Structures are given as structure tokens and as C-alpha cells.
Amino acid sequence: MEVSTIVLLIFLSTSLSLPSHSESSPGCKAWLAQSIPTDMPHLPRVPGVLSTGDVFRWLAWNSTQRLDVIAQYWQLNAHPEDPRSGDYGYSKADMLRFGAHEGSSVYKALQDAADRNVSIRLLSHSGVYPDYTTEPSNLASGRPNVENVTLLLGEWYGSGIVHTKVWISNRRDVYIGSANNDWKSLTQVKEVGIYLVGCPKIAKKVEVYFDNLWKLAYLNSSAYTKTVSDQQWQTNRKVPCWSRFLDSKESCRSPLPQFVRIPHVAGYPILSDPYMFKISIQTPGHSHSTLRPESSYLSFAPPELSFGRYQADQQAWVDTIKSVGSGGTVRISTMDWLGQSQYLKPTVYWSSLSSAVSEVVFSKHATVKILVAYWAHFINGTDQYLKSLLYSNVLCSSSKYNRCSGKVEIKYYMVPGFNLTGPATQNGTSTGNIYPGYSRVNHGKYAVSDARAHIGTSNLIWDYFYTTSGVSFGTYNPAIVSQLQLVFEADWNSPYAVPVEEIDQDGQFYSS
């Protein structure tokens, strides 16, 4: 409590006056932000890391001119009285204990920003049952300064959604991370993101991506899509007509505000020199902060929505894994890991990340630690793909000529109560659930080597890189790298992380 209070005071003194700063005001600042579910007493807190709820509120409170928000869905206000909701049947005392008020206070901060005549643009997927787009629609209702649009990426790719979680305030302050606009993402789900304050160089580039998505929402997809034989993934699928998969005779000029004219290729080539910007980032939440400019980057998905020489999101993940030094450690945290597509039909096989892992184990003798969520909606096939990665350890030592000392370690993150989520009552009968639906899960999506930190919005499944919107921020800033390592190790070394070898496919411990 003492540390968090100090951090809050530091933040308030340095950040709340930001809107009055001029464009020339020096000092891009960054804080890591995370959400920690209630009832996890054995998870150590990393000093200097902000809470997601505070970050969202500050972004709304500090907005004086404009606020852009990309969200998969909205459920900031809990609905324990609605029989259709996963919150149904819980008492007021339960909801208070769950921290549901954190979500409603964020929604109130957004209402206040709207009432201050801040220009607000809200872009999201069609939402989830039962609320769908009710909350952003209510914010826009009767307010000409608030625009709300829905983008269905499935109409452009045959599958895929808006999965990005981004806030941009005053074209200067940005949140990029895993947290949805959902009250549970603030207090019942483990989330990780980065909060960049006074960083117009970064914010304006993320805004370009926002504008591309915004434009897409107003276009007739049937006039701009083609079915192509995808040679890279060996399937026929729908893509925008400016995709690299289409040859020049079939392709069209991109209608997006910013784009790059790209020639036909069989797949998406890896950029040999993706755009990096040298930027000095202060890190007030870390004991060591440097003003030396370090290389940082942004990456985007799907590739057809990128621009300039920004890399596709998959490359950024792969390059982060490969940034590890000889004998170093790569740490990867994700909700889902699957070496294939999840939604595209027919299914495609996808080995990009697993190949990168095996390569650094062999060539750099690296240790790769992978933390994957085990929860109520665990994806079938995950266990098999993860345990196939462990075979790299067998191959590494299969011959004396390999001289290989690297290894892969994998753990499941099991938030207490993950198997007791859902409405408290159903049809007048107690369900035995003790937490609301779609909660109690590690939802973060990030990787950190000994040199580079990468914080994203995408699950590690093919669809999230080729048919689904996502944004990542990465940096070689040593303070951010160090602190993100601490966040990972706190999870990894907690009693909530269990080696995959000790868990069967039903989530039960193997008997000794």
C-alpha cells in the first residue's frame, strides 16, 4: 500500500497537468500497467506498476481535445440483475468485493469527458452478449462530439474481429495492452499493458492505424475484397483487394488514409529493416531511468492495415524472441497458444513462433519460459502444441555434436477460482459459481528477452496476426525491459503457475 501510494503521488504530480503542456514540452514517460484479480494473496506486486483502472480513468480525465478508443467490446458496467449476464445472481456485497465499481468509475470518467465536449471516437467489434454495443452507443447518443462505429472484420477476411485494446488521448498519451473495456478486466482478469504519457511521436502513429480501421468501417467490404489462393498458408481465403497475395491485375489501390503500395508476393516477407524510432523514455515507476534515446517500434495486424515501414505484428513477436543474447532468457506470457488457426476454415498450420523458440534454444543456447493461461474456456489442442514444444529439449540433447544447452520451460497460469465462474444462479437454482463469467484468467500478451520488451494485444494464434486487428509496442529501453521481466517472474514463481508436465488435459494434477 505504501509503495502504490508513493507511485500515485508521483504520477499525479507529473501527469495530471499534461494537457496544459505545449507540444514542445520534453519528456515522453512510460509506466507498465497491470490488473491483478482479487483473491491472489501470494502474487507479489512489482513496485512502480500502475493499475489498469487508474490508467483508463486518467486517460479520460486528462482528455481536453480528443479521445480515441479501440475496444473489442464494452461491459464497464456490471449487470448482476440481468439473467442473461455472467454477473447474474451475485449480491451487492459480492460485486463490491469483486471490484465492479472500478468499471463503472471508468465509464463515468468517459461520460464526463463527453460532457466536457471532448471529441471522442469509439471503434469496436459488435460486442458480446448480452450488451453488445450498448455502452458506446449510449455515450454517443445525443452528443454530436461523440462518434461510435462498429467494424466487422469478418466481412473483410471471412473471420476475424477488432481485438485491439488502445486508448489515445490528446494525440499525446496512449494505452496499449491486453485489457478490454470490461469491469472484469480491471479486477478479475490478469492484464498487462503500457501507458505512454506525453509521447506525441508514438501517439500520432497509433492514430494513423486508428484512422485506417475507422475508414474500413465506412467502406462496402464486398466492393473491396477478393478470394485468393493463399500460397503461404495453402488455403483459399478472402482478403482486401490491396493485399500482397493478389497480383497486379487483380489488386486495387488501397482506400485507406495511409498505406504503402506493395507488389504481389506469395506471402508476407519479413522486413530486413522495419522502422524503429529512437526516443528517450523516462520511467518514473522504475528505480533506474535513463534519458538516453533507445530504439522502439510499433507493429500492426492484419498486415493490410499497416503503413510505412512498420512491421507486421507476427514479425515483431518473432524478432523479440530472436533478440535474446547467447545463454539469455526469453519470457513469453499469453492467454492462448495454438500452432494453427482457430477460426479460419479450413484450419491452417502455423509454426512461426514455435520455430523461433526452437531456433534460439539451439543456436543461442537460450532458455525460453512460456506462461499460458489455463481457465474455463481453455482451447482444445493447446496442451498438445505446448508439449510438442518441449520436444525441443529432447532434440537439443539428442546428439553430442549439437552442443546445445538451451531449453524450453512451460507453465500453466491457473488463477484461483478459474473453474468456478459464471452466473451465481440459473433458473432460480444456485450454480455453485463463486466468480462472474469470463473471468479469473491470465489475459496478458507480451514477450521480453534480456534486451527487448514487446507488449501487444493479440493472442498467439494464427488468426490474430492475419485476420484480426492488433497493435504492439516494443522497446529496447532497459528500465522497461527490466520491469517487465519482474512482472513475468512474479507470475512465473507464484504458486499459481504450474509446469505443464504436472497437469493433464482436464486440468487435474497428475498423481505422483
TrEMBL record:
<dbReference type="InterPro" id="IPR001736">
    <property type="entry name" value="PLipase_D/transphosphatidylase"/>
</dbReference>
<feature type="domain" description="PLD phosphodiesterase">
    <location>
        <begin position="438"/>
        <end position="464"/>
    </location>
</feature>
<dbReference type="Pfam" id="PF13091">
    <property type="entry name" value="PLDc_2"/>
</dbReference>
<protein>
    <recommendedName>
        <fullName>PLD phosphodiesterase domain-containing protein</fullName>
    </recommendedName>
</protein>
<keyword id="KW-0732">Signal</keyword>
<dbReference type="InterPro" id="IPR025202">
    <property type="entry name" value="PLD-like_dom"/>
</dbReference>
<feature type="domain" description="PLD phosphodiesterase">
    <location>
        <begin position="158"/>
        <end position="185"/>
    </location>
</feature>
<dbReference type="InterPro" id="IPR050874">
    <property type="entry name" value="Diverse_PLD-related"/>
</dbReference>
<dbReference type="GO" id="GO:0003824">
    <property type="term" value="F:catalytic activity"/>
</dbReference>
<feature type="signal peptide">
    <location>
        <begin position="1"/>
        <end position="17"/>
    </location>
</feature>
